[in-house]
Amino acid sequence: MTYSGVIHRYGQLLDLPTYSQPVTLLEGDTPLVPLPRLCKELGGGFELYAKYEGLNPSGSFKDRGMTAAISEALGRGVKSVICASTGNTAASAAAYAGRAGLRAIVLIPEGKVAAGKLAGAVAYGAQVVQIQGSFDDALSLVVRITEKHSIALVNSLNPYRLEGQKTAAFEICDTLDGAPDWLCLPVGNAGNITSYWMGFRQYQAQRSTGLPKILGVQAEGAAPLVLGHAVDKPETVATAIRIGRPARGEQALQAAEESGGRMMAVTDAQILAMQRRLAGEGIWVEPASAAGLAGLAVEIQAGRIDPKGKRIVAVCTGHGLKDPDIIVRNMPTPRVLPVDLGALEQAILS
User: Fold this and answer.
1) Backbone Cα Rg of the chain
2) 99 within domain boundaries
3) Residue 191 has pLDDT above 70, yes or no
4) What pLDDT does 329 receive?
C-alpha cells in the first residue's frame, strides 16, 4: 500500500528530527478551487482560486502542522501533548494524538469556542479544560506547564508545526506550476502566514518559482497586528482568529513586509457576507476562513490591489461545520407542507 500525507510527500523538504515517527491521517493534497463567478464580480480579468483547507482530516489546515508536531513528539518518547486553542488546534491535536496513542490535553477559553470544534476535540478523546480567561491566558499556561513537565507543546510555537504547515505553499506551487501573484489569508495566532512565507521562500530557492505578495487579514475586533498593539479582549464572530496577542506576530509582520504585501482588517459584516458568497459557489467555510477573501474584495474595490492579469489564491482555513452557530441562529424555520403535489407546486413554482 502506498501512503500519502505531507511528510511522505514532502519529507525531504521538512526540517524534522531523524528520530521522528510519522503519524499521518493522509492530510494535505487539498484542492485549489477556481472561483470564476466571484472573480467576475470583482471586475474579472484575473484568476482566483480558493485553497480549501477545510478538506483536511479534522476539517482545518491545522492537520498539516500537527502531523509534524505529533510525529516528533512520538519519536521523542513523550506520552502526552497539550495545546491552547480556540478550537481547530484542539480538534487536530486530539485527532493526531489519538492516532499515535498519546494523551491529548486542550485548554480553551471559557465560552469562546464554537461547538463544532469543541465536539471534535471531545470525540477524538482529548481531555478538555476551560479556563476563566482568554486564548492568550491559556497559551501562557500551557507553555509554563510544558517547561515544568514532560508534556509536548503542540501550539504553533512548536517549530515543527510550521514545518508541516509550509507544505500548503508547496502544493500551491506544484498545482499552478509556480507561485501566485497574491496570497490572501486570515491571521489569528499568525503561525499560518509565517509558514506559508517559509514555504514559498524555500521553493523559490530550490525551484525558482517566484514569490507572492501576501495579504494578511484580521478581524477588526481582534486586529493587534493592524493596530500595532495587543488587544486584551478580542471580539469577533470569526472565532478561529479571535486572538489578541499572536504568538508569531513579529514573524507575520515580517512576512507581509518582505513579500511586498500588507496586513489589514475587515469587519464581521464583511466576513459573514463573504462566507455567504462562498457558500453560494459551493464552498462552505467557517467565518474566519472567509476573512482572506473579504480582505481581498475590500482592497480591490478600494483600488489598493489591481488584480488584472494576476493569479490570486485565497486560503480557506476551515470547513463550515467547524463553526455553524452563526448559520443556525439566523436560518429561517423550514416551511411545513402537506404531502400534496399541488401544495408543493404552489410553494416552489409560484
Assistant:
1) 20
2) yes
3) yes
4) 83
Which residue, 143, 159, 175, sits at the end of a domain?
159
What's residue 219's pLDDT?
A: 98
- Domain annotation covers residue 336: no
Q: Are 178 and 277 in a shared domain?
A: yes
Last residue of a domain, which of 159, 191, 211?
A: 159
C-alpha cell at position 313:
489564491
Q: pTM for the whole thing? A: 0.93
- 189 shares a domain with 260: yes
State the DSSP H helix or E strand holding residue 204, giving kind and residue range, or none if neither. helix 191-207
Statement: residue 135 has pLDDT above 90: no
Q: How far is CA 268 from CA 61, 79, 112, 193, 348, in A?
A: 22, 40, 16, 20, 33
Range of the domain at 300: 6-59+161-328
Q: How many domains does the chain have?
A: 2
One domain, residues 154 and 18: no
What is the secondary structure of 64-105 as a DSSP string?
Answer: HHHHHHHHHHHHHT-SEEEEE-SSHHHHHHHHHHHHHT-EEE
**Which residues lie closer than 8 Å to 128 by C-beta, 6 or more apart?**
90, 106, 108, 118, 121, 122
What average pLDDT does this structure show over 314-336? 89
Look at residues 61, 6, 2 and name the one whose alpha carbon lies nearest to residue 29: 6
d(CA 242, CA 219) in angstroms, rounded, equals 8
CATH number at residue 244: 3.40.50.1100
* Count of C-beta atoms within a 10 Å radius of residue 87: 32
CB-CB contact of 241 with 218 (8 Å): yes
Q: Please name the residue that has the C-alpha cell 485549489.
A: 32
The three cell numbers locating residue 61: 489546515
